[in-house]
Amino acid sequence: MPSIIVLDTLSRDGLALLDAAAASGITYEVRTGLSGAALREALAAHDGAICRSGVKVTADALAGNQRLRAIVRAGVGTDNIDKEAATRQGIVVMNTPAGNTISTAEHTFALILALSRNVAAADASLRGHAWDRNRFMGVQLAGKTLGIVGLGRIGQAVARRAAAFEMKVVGYDPFLTPERAAELGIELVDTVRGMLPMVDYLTVHTPLTDETRHLVGMDALPLLKRGVRLVNCARGGIYDEAALVEGLRQGIIGGVALDVFEKEPCTDSPLFGMPGVLVTPHLGASTEEAQSQVAVEGVGLLVDYLTSGTIRHSVNAAAIDAAQLEGVRGFVDLAWRLGLLLSQIDAPAPRSCSIAYRGEIAGRNTRLVTSAFAAGLLESAIEDVNIVNAEMLLRERGIDLVEQSRSDPGAFSSVVAVDLVSGNRVHRAAGTLFGHSMPRLVQLEGHRLEAYLDGILLVFTHQDVPGIIGRVGTIFGGLGVNIAQMTVGRAAPGGDAIGVLNLDSAPSAEALAAVAECPGIKSARVVTLPPAGRLPGWLVGAGNAQPRK
Ligand code: NAD
């Protein structure tokens, strides 16, 4: 009879569902506040565990565990669970990513409204016995433009609410198709910077990544519309707090509302003493409904898995069949890298993508390889994406992924070719494996070449005229950037060509600008891939576990 351990306080509705699961033969016990040996022993005595963010399920807590089959996080963040250790032991980790959506979208609007009508400051003033109606002149939302960066679950929920307030919505998301944006009444822009001069309100709903960190920093201040109000209910650090202070001080920014901070808990900040600032202590998901919903969803996931083996919202790849993975492990790595590569080309949101297998690989089960490509494509934009959930996340964004196979051999014994339809262009990359595990890029944007698929790449398009490679080499040599390998592909002598350099270090902005300005060079961009041999986190240990009964 399966048994469940509840490791953090769970809402009443979640516990009621566990009571009801007794009918399916499931028992449970609640043991909160566990750590060390007590946690290890408790985990070893159950088939499933459900937690929030309190307990730390470390590798040590899972060591030697022969019984546990699944851990569910009632909520989103799974940082408190060692997912690699769980994967190695065949333990599925799942979360409930949608349970917080409405509460966080509503909190965003609570902050937008409170900022616009000076609710907090007026409240404090009146409690101080001042009846001051002149100081708190507000603005209305109708007719204003709201900019939304990140149009996933929460960003879209915010957009729907903005429509009800008669706001105009402009948005940016690298993975929202124009069709889906039009359905939501959102005008898509090509870049965040392009959006800044036109918005009266800006709200961000992205993960914190290299790209989104300090999305609004000192350099963005001159671009902002004067008086803009900025809201962050996503992750601290997307706005540079020092730039917010400066923008408010200079009168460029009219208001700032933050639910999240660069360092949390945050109990002191230069922003706290400034007018036009509204702050809450990470309350986006703190509603009775959200807590109840994540608990109910979490218990549902766990009971479904323990009774029928159904996996939804898995954030690791523990359930992958070892035999199926073994035959394609190298190609899983290759396809993941091709996805990462295509995610870094400068292109609007993809409408569709395809993956084609040619040669010997076409005769194998390529389902995992296709999913690995989708995971690579989405990895920089979506938290917890992996080989199990990536295809679903693509579909949710209206992006089709089709798979094709042909077994006749081409120039290599096996080739994986990926296409991304974006705007009115098709971007293509193809790769192969040298040996069993050395991924190589053999085609890019229709040009044959041969480059390592790891580390730092400079990809530049140019006219095939004498001297280009020498000029790039001279610029990089002068600025201390060592070129490990170079390759060029061209359509025909003198025609369009593409160059790929494998670099030992990332070129500075100065070096990149100098290359881009070289006569004959049309575009230049850096693509960063994991070092050779580094597998995606979700693959480490996958397929190694003994199946659990
Ligand atoms: P989601 O994965 O559904 O959506 C995130 C979206 O951001 C994706 O569509 C992705 O394509 C987009 N994105 C990624 N990089 C981008 C970039 N550089 N520019 C523009 N868009 C980009 O996630 P979600 O559930 O909507 O959550 C959004 C954020 O809110 C997450 O960071 C989450 O951790 C946070 N969150 C905060 C609270 C809170 O308590 N304040 C509660 C829930 C979620």
Protein described:
The protein is α/β, with parallel strands linked by helices and 549 residues long. 30% of the residues lie in helices and 24% in strands. It folds into 4 domains: 3-99 and 289-308, Rossmann fold (3-Layer(aba) Sandwich), CATH 3.40.50; 101-279, NAD(P)-binding Rossmann-like Domain (Rossmann fold); 321-444, D-3-phosphoglycerate dehydrogenase, domain 3 (60s Ribosomal Protein L30, Chain: A, 2-Layer Sandwich); 455-529, ACT domain (Alpha-Beta Plaits). The protein has helices at residues 12-20, 36-44, 59-62, 83-88, 101-116, 119-127, 153-164, 178-183, 192-195, 241-249, 288-308, 322-326, 329-342, 367-378, 390-396, 468-478, 509-516; strands at 3-6, 27-30, 48-51, 70-73, 92-95, 145-149, 168-172, 186-188, 201-204, 228-232, 253-258, 277-279, 350-359, 400-406, 414-422, 425-434, 438-444, 447-452, 456-463, 483-490, 496-503, 521-528. Helix 1 runs parallel beside helix 11 and helix 13 packs parallel to helix 14 (367-378). The protein starts with a strand and ends in a 21-residue tail after the last strand. 45% of the residues are buried. The site of nicotinamide-adenine-dinucleotide has 33 residues, from helix 5 and helix 7.
Write the layout of secondary structure elements.
Blueprint lengths: L2 E4 L5 H9 L6 E4 L5 H9 L3 E4 L7 H4 L7 E4 L9 H6 L3 E4 L5 H16 L2 H9 L17 E5 L3 H12 L3 E5 L5 H6 L2 E3 L3 H4 L5 E4 L23 E5 L8 H9 L3 E6 L18 E3 L8 H21 L13 H5 L2 H14 L7 E10 L7 H12 L11 H7 L3 E7 L7 E9 L2 E10 L3 E7 L2 E6 L3 E8 L4 H11 L4 E8 L5 E8 L5 H8 L4 E8 L21
Parallel strand pairs: 1-2, 1-3, 3-4, 4-5, 6-7, 6-9, 7-8, 9-10, 10-11, 11-12, 13-14
Antiparallel strand pairs: 13-15, 15-16, 16-17, 17-18, 19-21, 19-22, 20-21
The chain binds nicotinamide-adenine-dinucleotide (NAD).
